[in-house]
Design a protein that fits this description.
The protein has helices spanning 13-24, 38-48, 64-74, 89-97, 109-121, 129-141, 146-152, 156-166, 171-178, 182-196, 201-210, 216-222; strands spanning 4-9, 29-35, 52-56, 79-84, 102-105, 126-127. It is α/β, with parallel strands linked by helices.
């Protein structure tokens, strides 16, 4: 029997413990690592190369969407399943845009998680029923999704930068967090403004909030 290796990423310990307990009873699934933020998840996946990554959207430093984009670069064979309490259209569009192959709303994860892991390992996609319905409706009504196009225009590094900007981090802190120079941070910010036709930091923050780069709890403090 082939064992499916899994990394869990969620900033809430109790959620990770619950997910681990759900998967512990599955003989063909093994949790090989856990991360409490998106950046730690990327490094863990880079090192362990798990078959599947189960990851929350709303995490500090680097959210699940940005982390999924980075994981595609550092471990393209690892399949990403996004977990979220949010199922609004911008979240769905962004999950699809970064190449995640599964999206589960947290309310249904206990019933669907092990099945989702097995399906994506086979090369299939897996979405909660409510998500699948909304995807079908969106593609029927609007085949060319502008939100997906906008996100596809951003690199994984730019998504990291815009989240940190929206969280209020100054250039010096962003440079330290990402291990790049302040000049490189400034270039990324300028590229973001050019691509998005935004002219100041407040505009970048509003864009990040509108697109769900940061979760609602952080948004309240930024407004």
């Amino acid at each position: 029997m082939n064992i499916i290796s899994v990394v869990l990423a969620d900033d809430h310990t109790i959620v990770r413990e619950g997910l681990r307990a759900l998967l512990a009873v599955e003989s063909d699934i093994r949790v090989v690592g856990e991360a409490h933020n998106g950046r730690e998840a990327v490094e863990l996946v880079r090192r362990l190369k798990p078959d599947v990554v189960v990851m929350d959207i709303a995490m500090p430093l680097l959210n699940g969407i940005g982390a999924a984009g980075r994981i595609r670069e550092v471990a393209p064979s690892s399949k990403v399943i996004i977990l979220s309490a949010h199922s609004d259209d911008p979240y769905i569009h962004r999950v699809l845009a970064v190449g995640a192959v599964g999206f589960l709303v947290k309310q249904s994860s206990s019933q669907c998680l092990s099945r989702a892991i097995r399906e994506v390992q086979k090369g299939n996609t897996f979405f909660s029923p409510t998500i699948s319905k909304r995807i079908r409706e969106q593609y029927r009504v609007m085949p060319e999704l502008r939100t997906v196009k906008a996100v596809k225009g951003l690199t994984a590094r730019e998504m990291e930068v815009i989240q940190l900007v929206a969280e209020g981090a100054p250039n010096k802190q962003i440079a330290a967090d990402l291990a790049i120079s302040i000049k490189t941070v400034e270039k990324h910010r300028q590229h973001l403004m050019d691509k998005l036709n935004i002219h100041d930091t407040a505009g970048l923050t509003r864009y990040a909030i509108a697109c769900g780069f940061i979760e609602s709890a952080v948004q309240v403090t930024m407004i």
